[in-house]
Amino acid sequence: MHFYCGTTESSGYIVFFDRNELREGSEVLCQIRLTNPIVVKRGDRFIIRRPSPSETIGGGWVIGTAGEKYRFGEETIQKLLQQREASSEERVLDVLSTKKCLDKNEISKSLSISCDQINEILNGMIDSDQIVEIEPGFFTSKEVYNDAGSQVKFEVHKYHELNPFRIGISKAECIQILERNFPKKLIEAVINKEIEKRTIAREQHIIYLTDFEPHIPKELVSKFDRVLDNLKHDRMEVKEWGEYCRSENVHSRFEHESYHFMITKKLGYPIGDKQLIHYETFDDQFKLLYHATKKQPFSLQDAREILSMPRKNLVKFLELLDFLQFTKRVKEIRKWTL
Questions:
Q1: How far apart are CA 74 and CA 62, in angstroms?
Q2: What is the chain's alpha carbon radius of gyration, rounded to the nearest angstrom?
């Protein structure tokens, strides 16, 4: 068929969604797919003609210009009915529920509404709390915005459940998970808003629920009590951290996380490769050395006479003091910084 709207003409064909033929005098909701792009807007009147033999088939008015490929069936008809009867505000909400987040020009174009009209409509919808401007010129519906917020908090909570030893999830990882359902721009805006509301906190690139604290899961408390007892018993002659965990049947997936958890919570101090010493062991050795040297500079030999431990362990312990900035090494001498 040929399509005529104002002075515009294009060829194309008609797609029905609830029938295979149209009888004379009937009205139908259908889609006209044109071979060439043209400029029309909602409400524009058109006529369609058969090219040969040349005759007018019918006419109608445009309810939408950003059509998709719809499925045959009643569901599509109901969608088109809603689109035909909807107010401008309802149509804005409908397109935002599908696209999640659009800029003003995209909304104007998809709904065939002029820029002046769309400004007035969007401002009114912001005032009535129907939509949210996530950044200048970009909008989403309040429903989509709240849904994205719920999904962000759900994913962070789920991460806490699976990784109780860690402080939180990487912001980039959280965005990557949620990009399956929401545009990146919207997720970032929601995360920033939740941080502003203090339901979510941020530490560098990590985000976490503000009421969450890394912790030992209840089902592992007794096992880790025994791990700490064993660590304390071994004083400076410690094994690799993983060995202590395996000896109490702690799942291997917790070894790395619990190692850093121990350091963060100051339950243990790193000494050597994948090794920790118990915090009480550290305190005892530190206080002994600190008071025996009377806060004066000391050498490796001085420390060895005071602490009476093998050279290998002593070197590791003194390097730990340097790392913690309790001491500063100057050639062969260490000075207290406390």
A1: 20
A2: 35
**Per 3-state DSSP, what percentage of the chain is helix, strand, and coil (rounded to 5)?**
45, 20, 30
Please say whether the beta carbons of 178 and 151 come within 8 A.
Answer: yes
Spatial distance between the Cα atoms of 20 and 34, rounded to a whole number of angstroms: 19
Judged against a pLDDT cut of 80, whether residue 64 lies above it is answered with: no
Per residue in 98-153, pLDDT (tens digit) is 889 998 888 887 777 777 788 889 999 999 999 999 999 999 999 999 999 999 99
Q: Return all residues near 144 (Cβ < 8 A) that are at least 6 apart.
A: 96, 97, 100, 101, 182, 186
Q: Which helix (H) or strand (E) holds 209?
A: strand 206-209
Give bridge partners of residue 273 from the DSSP assignment: none
Kindly list the distances between the CA atom of residue 288 and the CA atoms of 146, 193, 281, 291, 310, in Å, as whole numbers in the listed order: 57, 50, 11, 6, 16
Q: Are 307 and 300 in contact (CB under 8 A)?
A: no
- Determine the average pLDDT of the residues in 151-174: 95
